[in-house]
Amino acid sequence: MADLSTHYLGLALKNPIVPSSSPLTGRLDSALRLQEAGAAAIVMPSLFEEKIQQEHALLDRFLDEQSLGHGEATSFRPIPADYTSSEDRYLETLQQLKSALDIPVIASLNGVTAGGWLECALAIQDAGADALELNVYYVPGDSNETGAAVEQRYLDIAAALRPRVSIPVTMKLSSQFSAPLDFVRKLEQTGVQGVCLFNRFYQPDIDLDTLAMAPKLDLSSSIESLLRVRWVGMLHGHTNCNLAVTGGFHTAADALKALLAGADVVHLCSALLQRGPGLIETLLTDMQRWLEDKEYLSVDQLRGSLSCRHAPNPSDYARANYIDVLDSYSVPDGVQF
């Protein structure tokens, strides 16, 4: 039987399938089901910088206003005994997951500044997280902000946090950087041990009836995985960072392509939301069967064997694929030009 084990962020994992941040990984009952189905680790839902800041602002307002008209109370403004912040609830959930699960639990922080919200990284570490994922979900909307400034934002966040914690840190990236290989090398220099490719930017829609912007959530499809496969194949061998892929991985074939390109782990989200935790067992069975059919002994033997460095035709990862795709197009039957 082929060995599916892998290593990610210094963690020994029994296989490469890791459920990513979703409602399923934030509840103990569903996390246990994921573990039972074969998940090698889980990534918790993100703790958002904006929520922490908003709660701090509301608490400051409450403490300030309760002393109005009572001068003697100005220096005594206690926090209510039953007050619990989103950070408190997050840490409580993390501790519950760590107590009940046998697999590693990776916490997630989501923010766009290198501010005080990073202080909670220490609390997350103390609560028992095995690693920490930084999810910088940033859409640059300032016409005066340069691409270099956008990159520097990510680098500053990583550099501000990395010396503060001893657990491994990975950063979740968007697909819209102009030079990902160079950027990942710069991230590596800050001390992060991994990168996750790529964050899915949810696109706002326009409601033609109300003429208002409308939030919209569309789950991924397998076609999206190819962008991740391409760039993990380009990065493999050019960085010491562990490589994770996320977005569009629904089948064993999707996962195997990522591993062939050089991924260490494959994150699942939409597929699990659509089909439930039991999908993991199906994927692992299909992956095991494929490896045995192709006479691979392990995931380690498989990993990166079709990366850009090792592909029979490395140019297929770059411009040659673009030309070949256009040249291969044929007009469908019944369509006239």
Short overview:
The chain has 337 residues and is of the alpha/beta class. The chain has helices at residues 28-37, 49-65, 86-100, 120-126, 147-161, 180-190, 225-235, 252-261, 270-275, 279-293, 299-302, 319-327, and strands at residues 6-8, 11-13, 17-19, 42-48, 105-110, 131-135, 169-173, 194-197, 205-207, 212-214, 242-245, 265-268.
Protein model, in words:
With 337 residues, this protein is α/β, with parallel strands linked by helices. The chain is built from twelve helices and twelve strands. It has an eight-stranded parallel β-sheet with strand order 3-12-11-8-7-6-5-4. It has a two-stranded antiparallel ribbon with strand order 1-2. β6, α5 and β7 form a beta-alpha-beta unit. α7 packs parallel to α8 and α8 packs across α10. The chain is globular.
Keywords:
single chain, 337 residues, globular, alpha/beta
Write the layout of secondary structure elements.
Elements: E1 6-8, E2 11-13, E3 17-19, H1 28-37, E4 42-48, H2 49-65, H3 86-100, E5 105-110, H4 120-126, E6 131-135, H5 147-161, E7 169-173, H6 180-190, E8 194-197, E9 205-207, E10 212-214, H7 225-235, E11 242-245, H8 252-261, E12 265-268, H9 270-275, H10 279-293, H11 299-302, H12 319-327
Parallel strand pairs: 3-12, 4-5, 5-6, 6-7, 7-8, 8-11, 11-12
Antiparallel strand pairs: 1-2, 9-10
Helix pairs in contact: 5-6, 7-8, 8-10
